[in-house]
Amino acid sequence: MVHIIVILLTVLFSSSGVALAAEEHETVVDLTVHPLAIVSLAIFVLSYVAVLFEEKTHLPKSKPVMLGAGLIWVTIGFMAKDYGIDHDTLRNAVFHGLDEYASLLLFLLAAMTYISALEDRKVFATLRSKLVQAGFNIKQLFWITGILAFCLSPIADNLTTALVMGAVVMAVGGNDPRFVSLSCINIINAANAGGAFSPFGDITTLMVWQAEKAEFFDFFALFLPSLVSFLIPAVILGFFVPKGMPWSMKQSEEIKPGGKMIIFLGFATIAMAVSFEQFLGLPPFLGMMMGLSILMFWSYYIRKFGKKRDESFDILKTVALSEWDTLLFFFGVIFSVGGLAFIGYLEFASTSLYGNWGATTTNIFLGFVSAIIDNIPVMFAVLSMNPEMDHFQWLLITLTTGIGGSMLSIGSAAGVALMGVARGQYTFFSHLKWTPVIFLGYAAAISVHFLVNG
User: Fold this and answer.
1) Rounded distance, CA 140 to CA 142, Å?
2) Among 37, 130, 206, 451, which residue's beta carbon has the most beta carbons within 10 A?
3) 8 Å CB contact between 29 and 83
């Protein structure tokens, strides 16, 4: 019974963040039999429970996970003394996690800074304004916001895309709870589906790419399965969208000076990151940081030499606006999971799941788990386990964890964010009502993946 509990806890709670465990953690001895091993697991579970209640407690999610990471490694330090594990072995294990975290931190820091710069230049606000004033009816807006979410998320990430499209829905239909609820579900499903076939669309795909489980262009094999997972629920939901016209809105926004060039630089930075990895064998974060430096030069030009100089646009301030709570949360996750891996829990869970169930069943099951916990922790746990899987199976787990989170509102960052944007109109239970419809898309996407890529 204890072993069953350990398996479930390890899979359900064995991480939460981003990082790539391209190499397997190996323990010198099996530490799982030590009494403090259960204490370490309990610390992680409690820290993650605190994360789940973030919306109620308003405690930033990084705090409990960072504390948990430190405590886990402290308990490992005490266990190491009992088993004669030397300090160099412990330091090497810790610095392995630091290597993984540093590369991911720099990549995401550059990406988040670009997103903040685009928001500062009112690029997303202008898109929202144009859609609001275009004169579309309710059903057309349902489809337009969904299609745009699917198309934007591979580039702008699913969370940012969902927030932009959600703001459009609230601006034009905030007086119609049914339209808001159905549109939010459609946007979340579309954004998660669109992010599943691009390394830039979701943290999980980025993790798999940087862990070198698949090449950059390999992910595009998931385009058709992702499209199916979006279209099937969208078609069904579309029959229930009310008819009529949205509110008449006259608000107008324009892109600030330099905004269009930042859009171009963003695409160029993505191209550099891909090229560095594909053609030069260099880690993608180098390309992202080089792109960030170019953005810094451009912000300097806007402030000092542009036709419409804007002294308020400071890229360093934009960097400060990056989601540091999320970045530090990743730190806590990487080092917590690294600790559990060092103890031996992930190796045990990998043998129990992938060894007994097989890759296909386990990967499909973990898609359902991602709807409860969020896909990031699930994917990091899989990468930390590092099971023996072929290319097809690594794409399958990327797909299932990417789109599985759409089945519940709490299953992805996009869903949690839109519950805040459309508070009272889009809720956990309003989403739960349509979970069977989202499941149809999930099952169809897996079938298409087997049919097309098998």
Assistant:
1) 5
2) 206
3) yes
Q: Can you point out the beta strands (E) in 233-283?
A: none
Tens-digit pLDDT profile for residues 142-178: 999 999 999 988 887 777 788 778 877 887 776 788 8
Write down the pLDDT at residue 374.
Answer: 67
Q: Is the pLDDT of residue 22 over 50?
A: no
pLDDT digits (tens, 9 = 90+) for 108-121: 788 888 878 888 88
* Among the listed residues 109, 94, 105, the one whose alpha carbon sits nearest the alpha carbon of residue 336: 94
* Rounded CA separation 4/2 (Å): 5
Cβ proximity of 127 and 385 under 8 Å: no
Judge whether residue 8 has pLDDT over 90: no
**Are the CB atoms for 399 and 225 separated by under 8 Å?**
yes
Q: Can you say how many angstroms the Cα of residue 223 is from the centroid of all Cα atoms in its chain?
A: 18
For tokens 């230049």, name the residue: 121
- Model confidence pTM above 0.85: no
Interatomic CA distance for residues 19 and 105, integer angstroms: 9
Give the alpha-carbon dihedral of 283, 392, 194, 335, to 10 degrees: -50
Closest CA to 130 of 256, 254, 245: 254
Q: What is the rounded CA–CA span in Å between residue 109 and residue 102?
A: 10
Closest CA to 239 of 165, 330, 170, 142: 142
Tell me the per-residue pLDDT of 379-402, one tens digit each, with 9 for 90 and over: 877 887 788 888 899 999 999 999
| CB contact set of 264 (below 8 Å; sequence gap of 6+) | none
Q: Characterize 142-157 residue by residue with b for buried, 16 or more Cβ atoms within 10 angstroms of its Cβ, and e for exposed.
A: bbebbbbbbebbbbbb
- For the chain, the residue count is 454
Q: How much is the pLDDT for 76?
A: 92
Phi, psi of 387 (to 5 degrees): -70, 160
Which segments within 122-182 are labelled E, that is strand?
A: none
